[in-house]
Amino acid sequence: MARWQPHAPERLLVAALELFEERGYENTTVIEITERAGLTKSTFFRHFPDKREVLFGGGTMTGLLVDGIDTAPAGAGPLEAVAHALDAIGREAFTSDRREFSARRSAVIAANPELREREALKELGLIASMTDALKRRGVPDLTSRVTAELGALAWKIAYERWRDTTNRDDFAELARRTLTEVRAASALC
Q1: For position 4, what pLDDT does the model report?
Q2: Which has the closest alpha carbon to 109: 16, 31, 33?
Q3: Cβ(155)–Cβ(85) under 8 Å?
Q4: 8 Å CB contact between 90 and 175
Q5: What is the pLDDT of residues 115-150, one digit of tens each?
Q6: Phi, psi of 71 (to 5 degrees)
Q7: Any idea what the Cα angle at residue 179 is, between residues 175 and 180, rounded to 5°?
Q8: Using CB atoms within 10 A of its CB, is residue 124 exposed (0-12), middle (13-18) or buried (19+)?
Q9: Which residue of 2, 29, 64, 89 lies most exposed, with the fewest beta carbons within 10 A?
Q10: What are the C-alpha distances in Å from 33 to residues 27, 60, 134, 185?
Q11: Integer Cα distance of 37 and 32 in angstroms
């Protein structure tokens, strides 16, 4: 086996998803994932701390989200800064060629309590990151927290809509439309 293999994280992710679908999360080992990917166990642990993290991409989403908020136009309000971040995520992560894969990944996560728990923890971390990024823009604490929660809710709903393989809408468009819907719904509360 070659010492360095290109695209190792992606190969490990694909192999893990296939095995989780075939055998279930609990019945799949790291060794089986690495064998399917044609990589070594040490390569796996160089990229992921444990088996469940292979489905969660490290800090990629957090980085995209924070960078999107940080680079939003100076005059953008808090929700517009979050929308700017969701646009970036749509361009970088939720592209049309990833829709089917994302739907499969979501089904695997939904079938396993440990993975659902990890997904929930990841969501809390993303909300905290959004809150911090908004505060750095000078948004007051409570407004930052509420905006981050609304942004996370809009993201979650937009992602559910986007990963539906019969849907052909662009993620960024769905996210902006959903953010508008969530904002309107919150005004009715």
Answers
A1: 53
A2: 16
A3: no
A4: yes
A5: 999 999 999 999 999 999 999 999 999 999 999 999
A6: -95, 5
A7: 120
A8: exposed
A9: 2
A10: 11, 21, 38, 43
A11: 9
* 121 vs 39: CA distance, rounded Å: 29
Q: Phi and psi (nearest 5°) for 47? A: -105, -30
Q: Over the Cα atoms of the chain, what is R_g?
A: 18
Residues with Cβ within 8 Å of 155's Cβ and at least 6 positions away in sequence, in order, are 86, 89, 126, 175, 178
Q: Are 50 and 32 in contact (CB under 8 A)?
A: no
Residue among 19, 48, 184, 177 at smallest CA distance from 118: 48
